[in-house]
Amino acid sequence: MGGCFSSPSADAGASSANKAANKAASAGGHASREGSAVKSKVPDFGLGEVWEVIKLLGTGGEGETWLCREKETGREVAIKLVRRPIPKSITQIIQREIRILADLGDGHLNIVHAEEVVLTRSHIGLVMEYVRGGNMVGFVTRQRETRDQRGGLCLDEDECNYYFRQLIWAVQFCHENHVAHRDLKLDNTLLDGHDPPRLKLCDFGFAKGWGANSNMDTMRIGTPEYMGPELISGRSGYDGKKVDVWASGVLLFVLLLGMFPFEMEDENYVNTAGLYSIWIQQIRTSWQENPHNAGGVSRLSPECRDLLDRMFDVNQDSRISIEAIVKHPWFSRPLPPRYTNALAQLQKEQAGITARFAVSNFRSKERDLQLQQLLDRATQPPAPGEGITRVMLARTRDQLASLPPIDTAINTITEGGGAGGGTNGGAGGEHSGAPSRSASQSQL
């Protein structure tokens, strides 16, 4: 049940520079292009007891995401809805994905927050925070239209750095909790209503956890232009963390230049020849030497090019890690006060969430059992007189705020031996398993 969806954005043309936005617009991200997919008649979905259904935000392979308003509070949420009965064969896959998003989103401000799962007579729904600004596809598309004002860059390096830091913080949090996202891309990053906007990572349909190490099987999964060479080749397995590093590099490149560093020649996403064309480019030509990148490379600072060099290392063993990215000079470059102040405020708020969440101990077998029972019911037609059923996935941000003060929480962590980096204690190992195929348009 992917965490986000997007509606198709306007066609910006057929040039190489337009492919990144055009392809991204066809995949996932809830809350993009508000109003572009409004239906003439808004259905109820059996949600009427609790929520007012307002409008369609986007569609995906498994269902639709709708903007809804909670009647009691007036608060807006995004609800991903899938018609019941759902196939029994996918209940475990859906459960793993929901648990990953719930556990991670509850502990980090740069990850979409999942609140609950609801079951009505006609649908099962995942209730998430509503991210008002939509995904970054439209944002980058609009920026590309005025790139001449920034020396040919879609985003100048300061603004790009502001968003890239938040992406890496979110990915770092995932890895600390033993989860690889495996489908990082422009359309799986959302922008909220802050000024400047904060970035939110979404759609964990392809996410996978690990136990002792992050080595994963040879399944080709994701979006071709964001796949690392080891993922495309699928010969000897891959490191899930390093796959996320490569994809983060592609995302950084797209934010800066509005195009992919390695383009697929065949537009058929499920065509093996198209994947092979990207793989050949990756292993035979560096991103800087790729002919269609020549004009863009010269516009980047030496520090930025160095970081991209390290992220696009075709050898996953020597490819830069997320931890090393955070220490790289370009990552920590001085930024204008507008971005510095915004990041400082974000980190201050995140410190409170981290400390309180670390001692909240909300994840429980009871919640997982309730979720499993709800999904089992969703595989069956509704019983006579069946009403709406709700299962809370995680503490809401208001509930976290009511926990002990930050100083008290930090003292509790210290007395208990430390937070261990990730607030979830590496529990992502529970989430290993095949992800939802519909989370991305491209996979083999």
From TrEMBL:
InterPro entries: Kinase-like_dom_sf, Prot_kinase_dom, Ser/Thr_kinase_AS. One of its GO terms (cellular component) is cytoplasm. It holds the Pfam family Pkinase. Keywords: ATP-binding, Nucleotide-binding. Residues 415-431 have a biased composition (Gly residues). It comes from the Eukaryota. Residues 435-444 have a biased composition (Polar residues). GO terms for biological process: intracellular signal transduction. Residues 409-444 are annotated as: Disordered. Signal peptide: none annotated. Residues 51-331 form the Protein kinase domain. GO terms for molecular function: ATP binding; protein serine/threonine kinase activity. This is Protein kinase domain-containing protein. It comes from Raphidocelis subcapitata.
